[in-house]
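User: My collaborator sent over this chain with a note saying "see what the structure looks like." That's all I know about it. Can you take a look?
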Amino acid sequence: MGEDRRLVAVVALAQGMAAAHGLREAWRAAAVGACRALGGSFAALSVWERELGRLKVLVNVGELADGEEEFPEDESYPVHQFAEITEFLHEQWAGGGEPDAWVETAEGPAAGRRPGYCHQRVAALRRRGRGCCVVAPIVLHGRAWGELYVARPAGEPVFERADADFATVLAAVVAAGIAQTERLEEARRLAFTDALTGLANRRAVDVRLEQAIERHRGDGAVVSLVVCDLNGLKRVNDTHGHAAGDRLLERFGSVLSLCGAMLPGALAARLGGDEFCLLAIGPPADQVVKAAGELCRRAAELELGDGVACGVASTGDPIGPVRSARRLFRLADAAQYRAKAEQATRPVVAGRAGPDDPVVRLADEPSQESDGERRRFRGRHAP
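Assistant: Without extra context I'll predict from the sequence alone. Here is the result:
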């Protein structure tokens, strides 16, 4: 491949990774770009998990052999099977710059091969009908991160020293792309995370709830929202100081997360101040109410605070048509207000009989909100 073609291939790889949405897409773009750049038929990107002592495959692309999957769940290999990985993990290259790529063939050592002979890689090439491969270590933040692996089928030209040198360049481009994607992922995480509790924030709830209601309108999936107000926070702040208030918020956040684990896939969030919520998609309403009841019980046992006022609204209950996220939120919020006004120790559930009431008549409210209702909703829950 000429220098111009290789430069084009490097640019294409970098652009592919930059356009990826999330780490999985970035991994795939890295493997696809490297495979094309080196004229391979198969490529894989793997990470070296030091704490587990294994090489874990993140993605396979190209002509997959039997048993190979694009995004494997459990394809991994013990590090001790690969002498060159052990060497790389110990960073013996640290005094001599970046580690170079090398070539393996189904017949044994090849041009550009590093010292040592990896029988496992050779056996794997033969077993999968491949004639050669080039392996390029990936360094991220100054440490060994993983490897880029590109192979050709048996009968195709064997990779040469120049290919190994080019693979070293590609691995550096991949490392830069992974670093950038990780930074973007962290930025996205922070944008949707409450800094104090580590729970999701209001922005995350808005996005997830809109998606949930869209799904509900499409296939009828049950969407449930638990809105709760932590009682006594102002008293704790005034009496014990804001540090104690923050500890109460953190502890309640842990309780909310624990109870949310009772609902598969539920999102636990802090809406702001002393307001929290659980958003569940799929579990039946009774299961959500049970989790909310457990939340009330555990909150009452916290050392500080005065328990929690909890309201529940679920499309699995008789609350009328739910065509918008705003309506479900308003129903759950109204139930929570009712719980707070009555100092209820159990959840108040929209559309169900209350503990001291024949019917909690939230279900009878019109689905169309007035301008005044919209203003109250936005004012109470503004980010």
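A starting point for your reply to your collaborator: The two ends are 54 Å apart (CA to CA).
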